[in-house]
Amino acid sequence: MLKHGLRFYTVGLGGVVVQLVALAALQKGFTLGYLPATAIAVELAVLHNFVWHERWTWADRTRSTTGQTGRLLRFHLANGVLSILGNLALMAVLVGRLGLPVIPANVISIGICSLLNFLAADRFVFRAE
Question: Are 50 and 5 in contact (CB under 8 A)?
Answer without folding.
Answer: no
